[in-house]
# Entry
Amino acid sequence: MEILILNGPNLNLLGTRETDIYGSGTLESLKQDLRRSYPGFAFRFAQSNLEGELVNHLHDAATDALDGVVFNPAGFSHTSVALRDAVAAIDLPVIEVHISNIYAREEFRHASLTGGAAIGVISGLGFEGYSLAVRYLIDSART
Ligand code: CA2
# Structure
């Protein structure tokens, strides 16, 4: 099995600012946490600040027949029809993750266009959300 962990715009800044909202972990520490939690498991990690590059990462995951995607589209969650279409177009299970609880924040964050095309959404559990999403994808592939 191989799972794509895909992070959207500004998440490259994790751990450097807004730590009150997103915690002190960095993208690198997220990678290490997942590798430690799922030893020997194959992950593909990608982050982009560009909408089209995120679309391409989703297409590539499908072309390469990966087994699922854990996707934090960040700000694009609330705006991007193109990313929603890409999530819907690929024949892979996609779980959307948000580090913060989008429903406890400003109203414009309450709706996720991309989340409507994912099989599920985890929001507000910090980095643990990524790990739970991976666990779900592994368990559902086995059954
Ligand atoms: O809670 C999440 O994971 C979000 O997807 C994060 C997005 C936000 O637009 C969504 O509403 C919820 C923002 C990512 C910005 O990341 C930063 C990280 C560190 C410092 C500044 C921004």
About this structure: The radius of gyration is 14 Å. Helices lie at 19-22, 27-37, 51-63, 81-89, 128-142. The pocket of CA2 is lined by residues 10-11, 13-14, 17-18, 22, 72, 74-75, 77, 98-100, 102, 109 (CB under 6 Å).
